[in-house]
Amino acid sequence: MPIIASGQNSPGMIRSFWKISWPEKKWVITHPFISSKAFRSAKDARQLAQKLLNDSLLDADPDGGQIDAFRHAYWMASLSQKICWKKAVKLGEAHEKGNFRNFKKGRREELYQADSLGSVMDLKNNLAGAAIGCRNREISSDSLKIVILDEIQNGNMYVLLKDRSGRFLDCNHQVLDTASFIGIWKIPKCLVASDKGRIP
Predict the structure, then answer these.
(1) What is the pLDDT of residues 89-138, one digit of tens each?
(2) Do the domain assignments include residue 175?
(3) Counting Cβ atoms within 10 Å, is residue 96 exposed (0-12), middle (13-18) or buried (19+)?
């Protein structure tokens, strides 16, 4: 998830601008007056997701799990409360385009290698989050968090299938040797409802 900045914002936000991908920079350049709102929404989503790692509400999995789904959905929901949801979704799409460009250059998204199905998962959760934000423009951040947690726990978002040990599975429930897919974009992971992400 990007940290957005514009030239009219704080030094930290300006520094962040130079760290994001070109597709995200293009979004910022064409939306200079709302980029600070995108920055704050991204920051809030990261902080909330980090806090959720320490409780039992979700699966504590930031790579294709419920925490990952929450981070993207909350980011888009929070931003869609403040700006047009279509502009928010376009930013999410720019972020995923940036991930693909970085993948082709051998760079990781934070600690994890981006891949095709992970990108699909993020885009779907972005759309779900944007819809939640549009329907709930007046609710508080705490209430928004609860709505998104409920949606995840009720299976209305998306995660990648794993076993109880956290290993990725294909849709036949076979363990994937992720080491053999280094440098490969299309990995046969399995996208499932957000309440079905773990099997024994």
Answers:
(1) 999 999 999 999 989 988 776 668 899 999 999 999 999 999 999 999 99
(2) no
(3) buried
